[in-house]
Amino acid sequence: MEFMEIEEIVQKIDNLYTAKQKILKKLIDYLKNINIDYALLKSLKYNNQNKFFFDFNENLKNIKVYVIRWDKYVNPHDHNDSGCIFKLLYGKLQSRLYSTTMAYKDTIVYHENMCDYIDNEIGYHDMENINFYDYSYSIHIYSKNYVPSYHNKPI
Ligand SMILES: [Fe+2]
């Protein structure tokens, strides 16, 4: 293995970071333009499951899309290497952000149509449905496309 000059290493990391940001932006733009399918949400309301695989666009490869129905509270959790991009479709959610050592960092309230991204570098989060008289629903994208190659994961 050849050694790289520090400038090359910096450039390589920079390129990976830029590529990741570009794909993230594309996916977030994609989420922003999704129209809420109220018929779908209605059909999820009485289902036993609260997470639904959503196969709705073949043009975006290597992504998995889920709609999640939020009932009450979900404990702080991590995410897989590719992180999670999500958009609140309906309702209101409150999330507390923690470091990976569970030190409290921030509280975020998500309103309808807000998008966000979290991964394990950002930290862990919990999620609470604060739409007190109904469920909340969000759509989530899990993608391997924006995992930098140094994670050595198959794309
Ligand atoms: Fe999460």
Describe this structure in a few short sentences.
The protein contains two helices and nine strands, in the order H-H-E-E-E-E-E-E-E-E-E. With 155 residues, it is α+β, with helices and mostly antiparallel strands.
How would you characterize the overall build of this protein?
The protein is 23% helix and 35% strand. With 155 residues, the chain is an alpha+beta fold. Strand 5 and strand 6 form a beta hairpin. The chain starts with 5 loop residues before the first helix and ends in a 12-residue tail after the last strand. The structure holds fe (ii) ion (FE2). Fe (ii) ion (FE2) is lined by residues 77, 79, 84, 125. Residues 77, 79, 84, 125 line the site of fe (ii) ion.
Topology:
Elements (H helix, E strand, L loop, with lengths): L5 H27 L5 H8 L5 E3 L9 E8 L2 E5 L6 E7 L2 E6 L5 E7 L4 E4 L5 E6 L6 E8 L12
Antiparallel strand pairs: 1-2, 2-9, 3-8, 4-7, 4-9, 5-6, 5-8
The structure holds fe (ii) ion.
Q: How helix-rich are the residues, as a percent range?
A: 10-25%
Domain unit count: 1
Topology as a string of helices (H) and strands (E): HHEEEEEEEEE
Q: What percentage of the residues does DSSP assign to strands (E)?
A: 25-35%
Mean pLDDT: 80
Superfamily (CATH H level) name: Jelly Rolls
Strand order of the largest sheet: 1-2-9-4-7
| Ligands, ions, cofactors | fe (ii) ion
How is the main sheet built? Answer: 5 strands, antiparallel
Q: Which outline best applies?
A: globular
Secondary structure class reads: alpha+beta
CATH class: Mainly Beta
